[in-house]
Specification:
The complex is a heterodimer. By secondary structure, chain A is mostly beta strands. Helix content of chain A is about 0%, strand content about 50%. Chain B is mainly alpha-helical. Chain B is about 35% helix and about 0% strand. A two-stranded antiparallel ribbon of chain B has the order 1-2. A two-stranded antiparallel ribbon of chain B has the order 3-4. In chain B, α3 (about 60-70) crosses α8 (about 180-195), α6 (about 150-160) packs across α7 and α14 crosses α15. Classes of the chains: A mainly beta, B mainly alpha. At the A-B interface, β8 of A face α13 of B.
């Protein structure tokens, strides 16, 4: 997607399949998004994001049901109704001393309205987008 | 009728009159929905709380503010001693100049923005080529079309003028460095920034209305003109103007393309934000550079993450709307003369002017950009245009200069 300012490609944060049930279980206040192959457990920091303020996303990405582990995850966001994305690109880095946990910094929603938070999971069988809608007032 | 019955009857009549009076008093007030009210309240309160700039070690320091004010009006900071910052940022013109294009030693390519409320910016200049106010204050000094001086000129001026040297020492704790011209010039920019941080626009009729709505005072809110209320309803409703002109300062601080012609006088294209990001990233004076006083570099987050791409072509800064009635003409190049022209522009916007197909790859093949669906012709009636203009007029301060933060400092430097 042209305007996908992808935030950075994180080298992989996969947990083995048998760990899915515990995928990010220690992330307090986290939410999950699932597809057939992956589960993302994430939380926003700060938990309540505001228009025009930078925020971060802390997450764990896990493979499900014997699927190969994700090779990388890009974090991005867009406003589907407006046809534009963020003006900033997030950078994903591992969280120190937290096995398999990653943090995307530098995101900003610069307008009120409906945003779509995007996790683009890159794996051996291609790229998959897991999204979550966020209404920002 | 018993005495109790008479009392209840009389009380009911009094209550009825009171209700009718109250209804008459707030009869001018439109019935804003809870959602509309929520959006209205987002545009305040005003003024914003004070906070210092961590990247500027003299931010908020009275001696620096006094020095900055002195420098702001001093023409010796220009080539030929002919111009000062105040030549273009004229206090009686809401710190703009009223011209279509700014004129320094030569005419420039862009309209002079007001510096009122400038401290609230994330990005500075129409293209956001600076991420801090002190760098933005240095920029016109070095621009050959504006003040056209050198770092050496600025540094020697600060070193050799007895009063300024004394004031510099009071502001920064040390005299101007004897050798490092650039450092002295940047400090001069920091003093100018400290002064400009005090330039705040005063409260407006809209602020009174907004605050009345916040405390549920319908009678006070009803004093706000009804045509302005109708215009406000369009602004936060069918116009969606509040998506970009968001928050207490009526801007989200970002950039957008809105179909204003970008050809300059000599035929070159003003690429706006695209060029601005490139200049920002190349600048020695950005918040990641050696002159920022923010050791943590936490103020540099936006600069570190800003995205550069073709979507930035022809984007320009979304300006604050505060004091907008005092800062005509409008847009990055003064293309629109009046507020009515601005509202008509959005009412009739030609989407063909937005850059969706006139980008080409290296082989000359047109690139198709996804269309930003945000802008659509609003097709406003004449009455609606009048109403939005009436609303915009209420964003202008009631008393000129009333919001400026007064700081006293007795330098004893003569």
């Amino acid at each position: 997607m042209f305007r996908l300012f992808a935030a950075l490609i994180a080298t992989a944060c996969a947990l083995p399949c048998d760990a899915v049930s515990a995928c990010g279980a220690d992330l307090r206040g986290a939410q999950t998004i699932e597809s057939a192959r992956y589960q993302i457990t994430y939380r926003l920091q700060p938990a309540k994001i505001a228009v025009g303020r930078h925020f971060s996303v802390e997450f764990v990405a896990c493979a499900k049901g014997g699927a190969p582990a994700p090779a990388a995850v890009v974090v991005d966001a867009s406003m589907p109704e407006h046809g534009h994305g963020m003006n900033y690109k997030a950078v994903v880095k591992p969280v120190q001393n937290q096995n398999a946990r990653y943090r995307a910094d530098g995101l900003m929603f610069h307008m009120p309205g409906r945003w779509e938070l995007i996790f683009e999971v890159q794996g051996a069988v291609g790229t998959e987008r897991l999204t979550r809608s966020i209404a920002l007032e | 009728m018993t005495r109790r019955g008479i009392f209840i009857f009389a009380a009911a009549i009094v209550a009825c009159f009171a209700l009718r009076l109250a209804a008459a008093d707030d009869g001018n007030l439109l019935r804003f929905t809870p959602e509309e009210t929520r959006r209205i309240l987002q545009h305040g309160p005003w003024p914003r709380p004070w906070s210092r700039d961590p990247s500027n070690r003299v931010s908020g320091k009275p001696a620096a503010i006094a020095l900055g004010e002195r420098l702001f009006f001093d023409p010796r900071l220009s080539s030929g001693n002919s111009l000062s910052c105040a030549s273009c940022h004229v206090p009686v013109k809401s710190f703009a100049d009223g011209r279509k294009l700014g004129v320094g030693l030569e005419e420039g390519d862009r309209n002079t923005p007001s510096v009122l409320n400038v401290r609230l910016n994330r990005w500075f200049g129409w293209d956001g080529s600076n991420d801090n106010l002190w760098a933005q204050s240095v920029r016109p000094m070095l621009d050959p079309r504006e003040l056209a001086v050198t770092a050496r000129h600025v540094a020697d001026f600060m070193r050799n003028d007895r009063e300024l040297r004394c004031r510099y020492q009071q502001a920064f704790g040390v005299p101007p460095a004897p050798v490092d011209d650039e450092a002295v010039m940047v400090d001069t920019g920091k003093a100018l920034a400290a002064y400009q941080e005090t330039l705040v626009s005063g409260r407006t009729p809209f602020d009174d209305f907004r605050d009345a709505m916040a405390r549920g005072d319908r009678q006070a809110a009803a004093r706000y003109p009804q045509n302005a209320q109708r215009g406000l309803r369009i602004f936060i409703g069918k116009g969606s103007c509040n998506l970009c002109h968001f928050g207490p300062n009526f801007t989200n601080g970002e950039f957008h393309e809105i179909g204003i012609p970008v050809l300059r006088k000599l035929g070159s294209v003003d690429w706006g934000r695209y060029q601005g990001i490139k200049m920002l990233q190349a600048s020695r004076f950005n918040l990641e550079g050696p002159y920022s006083d923010d050791a943590s570099r936490s103020t540099a987050t936006s600069s570190r993450h800003v995205a550069l791409g073709p979507q930035n072509y022809e984007q320009f800064k979304i300006p604050s709307l505060r004091n907008i009635a005092l800062t005509a003409p409008y847009m990055h190049n003064g293309h629109l003369a009046t507020l009515r022209d601005v509202v008509k522009h959005y009412s009739e916007i030609d989407l063909g002017l937005l850059h969706s197909v006139h980008l080409y790859d290296s082989d000359g093949v047109p690139q198709t950009l996804p269309v930003d669906n945000l802008l659509k012709p609003l097709k406003l009636s004449v009455q609606e245009i009048d109403d939005v203009v009436a609303f915009l007029h209420t964003l202008t301060e009631k008393r000129a200069g009333a919001g400026i933060r007064r700081v006293t400092h007795n330098s004893n430097c003569r």
